[in-house]
Amino acid sequence: MAALLGAVDSAWLSQLAAEGGASAASELRSAASALQQSLNSPEVASVLDARLSLLPSSQRNAFCVPSNKALPQTDTSLQASPDADCVYLVGNSLGLQPRRTRELISEELDNWANLGVNGHFCGKRPWLPIDENVISKSAAVVGALPSEVAVMNSLTVNLHLLLVSFYRPQGKRNRIMYEAAAFGSDFFAFESQARVHGLDPKEVLLPLKPREGEETLRTEDVVAAIEAAGDTLCTLCFGTIQYYTGQLFDVAPITAAAQKVGGKALWDCAHAAGNIDLKLHDWGVDGACWCSYKYLNSGPGGIGGFFVHERHHGKDLPLLAGWWGQKQASRFDMGHEWQPEADASAWRLSNPPVLQTVALMASLEVFARTSMSELRGRSMLLTAYLELLVLELAGEGGLSVITPSDPKSRGCQLSLKFPSERLCLETFEGLERRGVVVDHRKPNVIRVAPAPLYNNFSDVQRFAKALAESMQEAKGEPAAKKAKS
Ligand SMILES: *Cc1c(COP(=O)(O)O)cnc(C)c1O
């Protein structure tokens, strides 16, 4: 019997992840053939959902999913049921709201109303140490020791804080290596840090591009570029998962190569935290940062995450200091003698934003019901399913997937590339009318991200059906065009 129709459990999913997801696609195919249905049929999707929904990694019920009719672009005449859940595949941009979030925020609003300033010390969760409620769960999600993590600020701020400590140009060791297509905010951080040090960004920034005709970087090329940079490499900083292509880099070997030539390796985990089973500690990365509003579902503008490896603790590294990095014992003495905390807390600046922190807590409580290894296994199945269904449509429309096909080299997101900007945009609009929420990135890519925690096989199946219809419509089948106007 197909494993997916039999005894699939948490351990089975973790094992699939440990094996790099190599068998994900064949498991799906054998399940469909055992059911004597085509892979893209709603029956296959609902059987898989029924099997997997019993496991702790299936947490859709813990989240609020917008309905079809609530979305601004939906054409309800194209919907069988306007009240049904929309197909939300954009957790890479803003994760869904956990059902508990409102309650946790309300509790703190009540404490503020009822206790005023006393809320700092009393109530169920005193505010002064409120971040203690999210540190160890955050650490579990990114594969870190709790002492290596701080939850504070937002992503770009945290990236700057890391660069202050880990971009210390001296003489010819002054270069920052990054992927040429880095997220704009990250690039601006690199460029402005060079200027802060009085250096010319053109001379010190070292962007890496994929080979001619290729969409993603090869590890061997990154390592070769690091070796070529040698003692000029000061800091390497990559997005762990590239936001546009969905490529997951080989963090451990790239980090080791940068450190071997005397550089530091920083990773922006915006698209990786809550998506893949990160092992920041074991991979030996020097520093990392992430946002929590994408796969970590903490809400728009949510609080950021920050990691400094324990080997750098207590070493008096240069940092931007604030009173919250001061040892707790003397923090409120208001003296002027800097006595930093002994771990990543030394990098904290300000007292924590309570509402943002408990909003993150609501989501981390859901993550704590499962493990990142189980989630990664579930995610590899979902994305393999998405890939199989998209590839069935790829031939005719000139559609391609630019995300690596090896499950080890990607997270949950697939980036679909269209032959023209027009076809991409019109297909995107067709998806919107059908209650499918994905995102469009200029010029001709649609990003599709089945979030491991709450998306299911039916979401992916409904997406593929809507994609087929929308592409047809965009290609100008006369009947479809008419129906549209
Ligand atoms: C989402 C994202 C950002 C956004 O930065 P904020 O400081 O949170 O506004 C930056 N960089 C990357 C790589 C991202 O994916």
UniProtKB/TrEMBL annotation:
Top EC group: hydrolase
Pfam families per the UniProt record, alphabetical: KYNU_C
Positions that bind pyridoxal 5'-phosphate: L155, T156, D268, H271, Y293, W323, N351
BP GO terms, sorted: 'de novo' NAD+ biosynthetic process from L-tryptophan; anthranilate metabolic process; L-kynurenine catabolic process; L-tryptophan catabolic process to kynurenine; quinolinate biosynthetic process
Organism domain of life: Eukaryota
Enzyme Commission number(s): 3.7.1.3
Subcellular location: Cytoplasm
Co-factor requirement: pyridoxal 5'-phosphate
Recorded GO MF terms: kynureninase activity; pyridoxal phosphate binding
Keyword Hydrolase: yes
Keywords on record: Cytoplasm, Hydrolase, Pyridine nucleotide biosynthesis, Pyridoxal phosphate
Pathway(s) this gene product operates in, as recorded in its UniProt entry: Amino-acid degradation; L-kynurenine degradation; L-alanine and anthranilate from L-kynurenine: step 1/1; Cofactor biosynthesis; NAD(+) biosynthesis; quinolinate from L-kynurenine: step 2/3
Cellular component annotations (GO), alphabetically ordered: cytoplasm
Main location: cytoplasm
Membrane-spanning ranges: none
Keyword Glycoprotein in annotation: no
N6-(pyridoxal phosphate)lysine PTM positions: K294
Catalytic reactions on record: 3-hydroxy-L-kynurenine + H2O = 3-hydroxyanthranilate + L-alanine + H(+); L-kynurenine + H2O = anthranilate + L-alanine + H(+)
Family: Belongs to the kynureninase family.
The protein's assembly and partners: Homodimer.
Entry function: Catalyzes the cleavage of L-kynurenine (L-Kyn) and L-3-hydroxykynurenine (L-3OHKyn) into anthranilic acid (AA) and 3-hydroxyanthranilic acid (3-OHAA), respectively.
Name the record gives this protein: Kynureninase
Organism the protein comes from: Polarella glacialis
